[in-house]
Amino acid sequence: MTTDTPRTLAEELRTRSDSGLVGLLRARPDLLSPVPGDVTQLATRAGTRASVVRAVERLDRFALQTAEALAVAPDPCPYDTLGALMGGDAGDEAVAAALPRAVAELRGQALVWGPDDRLRLVRTARELLAPGAARPSPTGLGPTVAEAAAGMSPGRLQEILAAAGLPTTHDPVSAVAALTALFRDRERMAALLDTAPAESVAVLDKLLWGPPYGAVTDRPAPHLQWLLDRGLLLPAGARNVVLPREAALHLRGGRAHRSPEPVPPALAPTTERDPQLVDNAAASQAFTALATVEELLKEWDLGGPPVLRAGGMSVRDLKRTATALDTTERLAAFWLELAYAAGLIASDGEADERYAATPAAEEWRQLPDHERWAELAAGWLAATRTSGVVGTADAKGRALAALGPHLDRSPAPEVRRRALTLLATLPPGTSVPAATVLSRLRWERPLRGAGPTAGGVGGATAGGAAGPTTSGGAGTTADGGAEAESAGADDLRSRLAQWALEEAELLGVTGRGALATHGRTLIGAEGTKAVAGPEARRGTAAGTGTETGTWPESGTWTQAGAETAPLAAGAASGGGAASGGGVASGAEIRAAATRAAALLAPLLPEPLDHVLLQADLTAVAPGPLQRPLAEALDVLADIESKGGATVYRFTPASVRRALDAGRSAAELQDFLSSHSRTPVPQPLAYLIDDVARKHGRLRIGAAAAYVRCDDDALLSEILADRRAAGLRLRRLAPTVLAAQTAPEQLLDGLRAMGYAPAAESAAGDVLIARADSYRTPPRTAPAPVPDGPPSPDGTLLEAAVRAIRAGDLAATAERKPVHAPAPAPGTLPRTTSAETLATMQAAVLTNSALWIGYVNADGAASQRVIAPVRVEGGFVTAYDHTADEVRTYPLHRITGVAELADDVV
């Protein structure tokens, strides 16, 4: 070992280039909050539990398996030993080809340090991944012989050596070493197991891949006693035993994992379609999405449902909304959350709080269709609120309500973008099953968002001659593969990905399961090349062992081929190859949505200016209508059915609604004639004239209420009608009736009796019944809840690295010898005010650098390397090497000063 070998993580980080530190900070942005003062602080922060847990969660499956193998390997571990643990005694070409990438990723994220002959897993990561009695290792391995035999008596150790055919020793340490050497020796261990009873071998097979713990009775069966006598099972408590790690590795053929997964699952099988068909299907669904959101806004035009005391909508209101939108409650929750994310609906904030459309909804409705889609797509792509959890229980067992609190899931934007990015790696028009995408995402982040697993020790039980039987729980199997497929299907990340694929189809980002052209633009994958085949997708050339990716000095693994563009397009979350598809900024998302909408615009149907009137009192709109025409028809007729064509039905009530809105019969006839490609049918003309003739003959005003009519016979008819008894009418004059009900109730009552009354003002003029839309005060869309610290930009990273380098220089710079006692490492220098001033003035004359201790106005102490330029008025102006700029410091805040060695700066 040379003298250049780093002894600590800080020393290795100190040897990295600036681009290497930039790569570390980009992969682990939490290390920047706040910016470390020097490399030692950076290394300390990189080893904290919270930061290490976050970094481990962002590893792909093979990198995680590599870290798990290092956790059970000797410390330090040579690269060849690690390769043997990952590939086994027989070796594995795919593992050997992918292992350099995994080690480089771990080293780039400061989870592993040291040269290849002395690889070290950081202490916190080893504590997280190493096996323990209360925390089984994902590898399924147990403690070493030395750890399991720590509390065993020396006499018992000598008995085990004798039973195993080993010479006795004089102390426990050498006894443990001899037993360990036996278990590691393939030939001697094979000879020992050849003498084992078949039942004993069966017990070892059950404990082989974990959990390695079991329980025995006070009188073990003979085949169990045989294992106990030879140390193949060691005590792990009063009635528990464990299979030692070295023995398990021999039985496994040297493998730490049952199924190493060096390459990601291929995106297969694929289904190829005409890209134009995919784009058309996506455009059709995009138009349906616009129509659904517009229908929701129309439903809430006069105000929506009340807000629950705890926030959100009630189940009854959600069902009512689903009925109005002609969809399921689950999809209704999605449309509600989509409109909420786009800032189109919100609560009004009044005392009797309720939901309603926002002023932005009016502006949105006036936009062209493709621009309206861009607003929805941008809001959806960045939203952390997740409609899929509506109806599930929160931590307190309460059901989560639509539009309510606690719906934010921070990983949602990253998972949503990554799922679409995987689809972008396929040729245009090509789709894969959703299960394939979920499998790939689970490989990329096996721990991210995973639900809790059974953390208890499964172990085995044994009694009498029955022998042990294993009973393991989910999450305690030997490798990170099989249990992830079974227990990981319902983890949060998988559910988010499943919802993302479904929502992308509903929103028109994908069509028939394939990413549309405008969908590729939305996620910034316009230039993505298709993957040629499964081997290219897996990132390794088949059969050659040659890596198809590179590990640049920046510390971020870049796979060659199709996925490079998507990964670079959204790399915000850090974490290496598996972290591709990070979260872009809001401005970037809106710009991409605008570009995508421009591609979508030609595919959307053009609004029509006509309908087809039919003799059965219906009108058929063969496509989307222009907004003024659609709004007028919504008043004049009722929508009977929707689909490719919309069918409107004219009824007396709908015609009366149009008359109440201030239109005359002649205006309605002219309107229909000018907007119909067919003549106005006679039945429809008769209906309009008949309703108009009756409309307004009765006038209702406020007395409390009165009914006025020039035809006194009609009033007599109303008085004689039994149905009018509840209105409590009485005649005031031959042409006037008074009522003891409100005008609105009187209007509804007479209309229910078949009359067509009209309301009038105090001046006797007919009141036009045009309800005012209800809008909330101006509201902004909900802000996404970030998943950890934001991704730093290049400027911040470069500045942070400069500050860390300068701080490191100040902390490690060699000082000139002084007669006074030198300050302890990490403490500020102490000098008197006179000494500080004299040293500063001398440094100005000699143009030399100084090391100072400084306390700012907030009381924060720091060390700095400065080159004084001027000293006057109680201040020193100097070039600060730490901040890389000229600054002015009050002399009274400088705690002390020391000269630096001549060759430091």
End-to-end separation:
31 Å
Helix coverage percent: 40-55%
Derived from helix and strand composition plus strand pairing, the structural class reads alpha+beta
Quaternary organisation:
single chain
Number of strands: 29
What kind of sheet is the major sheet? 5 strands, mixed
Strand content: 5-15%
Report the total helices. 36
Mean pLDDT: 81
Rg result? 38 Å
Identify the overall geometry. Answer: elongated
Strand arrangement within the widest β-sheet reads 22-23-21-20-24
Uncertain segments of ≥5 residues (pLDDT<50)? 451-489, 531-581
Verbal overview:
- With 905 residues, the chain is α+β, with helices and mostly antiparallel strands.
- Helices cover 42% and strands 11% of the residues.
- It contains 36 helices and 29 strands.
- The strands form 10 sheets. Strands 22-23-21-20-24 form a 5-stranded mixed sheet, covered by helices on one side. Strands 28-27-26-25-29 form a 5-stranded antiparallel sheet, sandwiched between helices. Strands 16-17-19-18 form a 4-stranded antiparallel sheet.
- A hairpin with a 7-residue loop joins strand 14 (549-550) and strand 15.
- The longest helix has 25 residues, at 275-299.
- The two termini are 31 Å apart.
- The model is unreliable at 451-489 and 531-581 (pLDDT under 50).
- Residues 448-489, 531-553 are annotated as: Disordered.
- InterPro entries: WYL_dom (IPR026881), XPB/Ssl2_N (IPR032830).
- Residues 476-489, 539-553 have a biased composition (Low complexity).
- Residues 835-897 form the WYL domain.
- Residues 452-475 have a biased composition (Gly residues).
